[in-house]
Amino acid sequence: EAGVAQSPRYKIIEKRQSVAFWCNPISGHATLYWYQQILGQGPKLLIQFQNNGVVDDSQLPKDRFSAERLKGVDSTLKIQPAKLEDSAVYLCASSHGQALTEQYFGPGTRLTVT
Amino acid sequence: AQSVTQLDSHVSVSEGTPVLLRCNYSSSYSPSLFWYVQHPNKGLQLLLKYTSAATLVKGINGFEAEFKKSETSFHLTKPSAHMSDAAEYFCVVSANAGKSTFGDGTTLTVKP
Fold first, then answer.
1. Which of A91, A96, B19, B40 is least surrounded by CB atoms within 10 angstroms?
2. Looking at beta carbons, which residues of chain B come within 8 Å of A99?
3. What is the tens place of the pLDDT at every residue in A30-39?
4. What is the mean pLDDT of residues A40-49?
């Protein structure tokens, strides 16, 4: 089966600019996650979708970050405006269910904000 | 609330010697616990998971982990390290409605 797809793989922007990331999960996976992984740290959950509804967005900086999952399949994560501290790898993952199930990760998008 | 502490940020072993990567967790609920591996320039991959069945869990590539509730630990072990095991390893706890919390990772170096 095809894995989780993400694009772009790399992005360099200046602070205060906006950027968007795209994720296509494994077919049939109801749950989709966006993580932020800062260099030297573990991934931090930003938002979790169950189909097209939000399950958890408690750690999403809502003043600048937004995410949507239209039709319960693909998802986009947007940052507007970007700050220097947003430099990180943004990981998308999907799973069949919520708790107790394995998450399948995409290759990530490496964002550099200058 | 839940949290994960990986006790060593870096572990270095010689090829053929045992590997021990330590993980302690905290959770208000009965947790599921996972170990993921991240090789350079590759995505995170599941090594093994504990979901309240057997406390000794076997995973891929010869890794295993033991869930010890009394010690709130889930340490990862392998009897004999291989050069290809060099990677970043993450311990993960998942309990409250499936929210996953990752540790900060342990970098495993394998010397020839």
1. B40
2. 32, 94-95, 97-98
3. 999 999 999 9
4. 93
Dihedral of alpha carbons A70, A76, A77, A80, sign: negative
B4, B44, B104 member nearest A105 (Cβ): B44
The DSSP 8-state label assigned to residue B86 in this structure reads -
* Residue span of the structural domain in which B22 resides: 2-111
Beta-carbon separation of B90 and A31 below 8 A: no
Structure tokens at A45: 């959950």
Indicate the pairing of strand A44-50 with strand A53-56.
antiparallel
Domain that holds residue A14: 5-100
pLDDT at B28: 81
Q: How far apart are CA A28 and CA A96, in angstroms?
A: 7
What domain count does chain A have?
1
Nearest to A98 among B4, B46, B98 (CB): B98
R_g of chain B, CA atoms, integer Å:
13
Q: Choose the mutation target among B44, B48, B88, B90 for the interface with A, i.e. most A CBs under 10 Å.
A: B44
CATH code of the domain covering residue B104 = 2.60.40.10
